[in-house]
Amino acid sequence: MPRKRTLSARTLHTLRVLLERERERIRETQESLRRDLRALAEAHGEENGYGTHLADVSSDTLQQEVLQAEIQRLEEESARVQEALQRLQEGTYGSCVDCGRPIPVKRLRALPTALRDATCQRAYDARAQAPPTPSPLGRFPRPLVTPEPEPRPTPREEE
Fold this sequence. Notes:
Layout: H1 9-47, H2 54-90, H3 105-110, H4 118-129, H5 155-158
């Protein structure tokens, strides 16, 4: 649980400005990507399928998917920025969510949305990348009921 962190007023102001600029950059980028997505959809809609080559349709579809994925990524990034601003307001910004120790200001300036100090972040990343623990029954548990073997054909059935 993060503890209340006391940062200087100047440092808090600097970090708040960084977060607000990042929020604005994300918003502008999202708007631009949404305009591109609309333009692509309108261009594809205007063709009405006449003279459209399958490769062009595939390319447009791929571009739309890439734009949508980038918009989604930016929405997640925007949520992290908003959460950081909320922690700033609550007074818990700059404290590690795992151990409660202060996150170094140098790290916060480089990554204003940081939730953890570097040590806890490495441990978190290692847990996230670890393979899942095997089931106590083993990787492929045996069926509870053994299936009956298929009957073998008799010599008369083979003819």
